[in-house]
Amino acid sequence: MLPEVTPAERDVTPGRGLRVGYVSPDLFTHSVSYFAEAPLSRHSRSRVQLYVYSCVGKPDAKTVRLRQQVAANGGVWRDVGRLPEHQLAQLVRQDGIDILVELTGRQYTA
Length: 110
Fold this sequence. Notes:
alpha/beta; about 20% strand
């Protein structure tokens, strides 16, 4: 586990967009990717800096389309599926993410 970010380490640059990160192994043809498509492609570029941490094992055409949408919206796509969790945490911290959204799909089975 990484130590807590101190106030001195936070980027409080006036006018800096909010940095929002999304992490998911489901950014391929999967139900989660359909729900994630709107926020990944429609953030306001002037207000939000978008980062995607993709843990997809087998990218497909849906992965390619999502990556293109993120790039078209000025976002950053990172393939992190092979990173250990502590290295992913360090990368998120280096990117200065303000809000991290975890998009792992949960499915109910009876």
